[in-house]
Amino acid sequence: MIGQLLLNGAVSGLLLALPALAVSLTFGILKFPNFAVGGSLTLGAYAGWVFNTQFGFQIAAAALLAAATVALVSVLLDIAVFGRLREQGSIALMVASMGVSLILENLCRFVFGNATRSLDVEVARPLRWAGLRISHEQIVTASAVLCCLVLLHLVLRATPLGRAMRAVADNPTLASVRGIEREAIVRLTWAIIGLLTGLAGVLAAIDRAVEPLVGWSYQIPVFAAAILGGLGSPLGAVLGALAVGLSEELATLVVPTSYRQVVSFAVILLLLLVRSQGLLGARAVRK
Predict the structure, then answer these.
(1) What DSSP element (H or E) covers 133?
(2) Which of 69, 85, 110, 140 is 20 to 30 A from 146, alpha carbon to alpha carbon?
């Protein structure tokens, strides 16, 4: 039983890792907590449903198209909203992101209604291995997320774009002096954030269903994962997501399922009391 819970928690944590990475990238490069992640997840879930069930694409192609759609929407939102508020400070951007999330969720509700929908995914018997029950949805989620994590790591660590993103995150003024186009890097960052949240939305739809609050159900655990790992640290976001996923699943051993998030947040609170900057975050320097 413990092994099954660990497996389920690890897969749940991997699903949280993609939007947690998006939150970490936003905070590290754009310097504000992006609450629009929930709305982007919802948009990705509905976009995947449209491409999959209405246009007949296979789930892999539908997921890629949904991720591209959310990436485009994210860039357009930066042009229309966030770019205009960038000089107003992190509080204004955070409040704007809350409004954007509500707009995206309610736009999906207005267009598609409140009915719960499902993706067109083949039903298959779960696999049995070493006493564990492994569903095909878990295999798809784990494989997709691990591929994304490897690709993102290569982009951040081994490409000129990754070096430019790290430079803008560390010192945007110095980066501009060195010839790095900050606005271009910001737009590309938004595109990556959209790709991550769009794909996560489709994976969430596979795991659960497509409905207007699918993004909201993940938003609090996603922020908990990003904060636990250390805001601004991509690797920390992944570790934090795994910690949240595992703690929520293991909590069901001692409390009802409806209370498992309470237990996970209690664990997170205790960890942050010991290490306030999170697992891999840098301690803030006060002057």
Answers:
(1) strand 132-134
(2) 69
| Alpha-carbon span 189 to 11, nearest angstrom | 26
Tell me how far apart the alpha carbons of residues 128 and 20 are, in angstroms, rounded to a whole number.
Answer: 30
Tracing tokens 């509905």 back to the chain, one arrives at: 46
What is the domain partition of the chain in residue ranges? Answer: 17-216
* pLDDT tens digits, one per residue of 54-75: 999 999 999 999 999 999 999 9
Is there a contact between 20 and 229 (Cβ–Cβ < 8 Å)? Answer: yes
The answer to whether the CB of 224 falls within 8 A of the CB of 236 is no
State the DSSP H helix or E strand holding residue 94, giving kind and residue range, or none if neither.
helix 90-112
DSSP code per residue over 186-239:
HHHHHHHHHHHHHHHHHHHHHHS-B-TTHHHHHHHHHHHHHHHH-TT-HHHHHH
Using CB atoms within 10 Å of the CB of residue 199, give its burial: 0 to 12 exposed, 13 to 18 middle, 19+ buried. buried
On whether the CB atoms of residues 234 and 152 are closer than 8 A, the answer is yes
C-alpha torsion angle, residues 153, 5, 19, 194 (rounded to 10): 80
Distances (CA, A) of 22 to 25, 32, 192: 5, 12, 8
Pairing of strands 132-134, 127-129: antiparallel
pLDDT digits (tens, 9 = 90+) for 163-201: 999 888 888 888 888 888 888 999 999 999 999 999 999
Tell me if 131 sits within 8 A of 5, measured CB to CB: no
Of 186, 227, 179, 188, whose CA–CA distance to 87 is shortest? Answer: 186
pTM score = 0.91
Q: Who contacts 66 (Cβ-Cβ below 8 Å, separation ≥6)?
A: 44, 45, 47, 48, 51, 198, 199, 201, 202
3-state secondary structure at position 50:
helix
